[in-house]
Amino acid sequence: MRKQDQSTRRRFLGLAGSAAVLGSVPAVTLRPAEATPATLASAIRNVVGGAVVRTGKVKLDLPPLVENGNTVPMTVSVSSPMTPDEYVKSIHVFNEKNPQPNIGNYYFGPLAGRAQVSTRIRLADSQKIVAIARLSDGSFWSTSTDVVVTLAACTDEVI
């Protein structure tokens, strides 16, 4: 037998054996984690602990209605003088229905100039977005907004 024929035969037998093994393994379907308002509350609790979160100082700019959840523009800003004595330490953004409740954590110092973040996010469905800012005095401030998504992102379904 020629060497090339042996190589081809070995490759064929290896592939056939692999296919036989894969055929005997049951198919596993992975789905995204179930997101709920409880997971949102838990994610917020992980950031603020038991601190009181007050409403105000934070501005969240998101379109109220988006056609496609794959790329949603978002800007979060916090009114603060950003001085060494009074500045924003961090901004945390959360969502209610995506598989992961924490969209992002952004950290600042007094030299940042202003506490503002602009980015694009993915939204799995129409939901509430919450932004929380931690100030240098240890206080937490928040705002939230609802976004209606007509074509969801972050799903495994084929349309």
Written as H for each helix and E for each strand, in order along the chain, the element string is HHEEEEEEEEE
Mind telling me the C-alpha Rg? 24 Å
Helix content: 10-25%
Give the overall shape.
elongated
Residue fraction in strands: 35-45%
Summarize the biggest pleated sheet.
Answer: 6 strands, mixed
Q: Tell me the structural class.
A: alpha+beta
> How many alpha or pi helices?
2
Q: How many domain modules?
A: 1
Question: Can you say what the CATH homologous superfamily is?
Answer: SoxY domain
CATH arch. level architecture:
Sandwich
CATH topology title: Immunoglobulin-like
Low-pLDDT sequence parts: none
Instruction: Supply the CATH class.
Output: Mainly Beta
* CA distance, first residue to last residue: 51 Å
Number of strand elements: 9
Mean pLDDT: 85
Structural commentary:
By secondary structure, the chain is α+β, with helices and mostly antiparallel strands. The chain has a single domain (37-151), classed as SoxY domain (Immunoglobulin-like, Sandwich), CATH 2.60.40. It contains two helices and nine strands. The chain has helices at residues 3-24, 37-48; strands at 53-55, 58-61, 65-68, 72-78, 88-95, 102-107, 115-121, 127-135, 140-151. The strands form two sheets. Strands 1, 3, 5, 6, 8 and 9 form a six-stranded mixed β-sheet that branches. The protein has a three-stranded antiparallel β-sheet with strand order 2-4-7, with no helix packed on it. The radius of gyration is 24 Å and the shape is elongated. The termini are far apart. The model has no long low-confidence stretch (mean pLDDT 85).
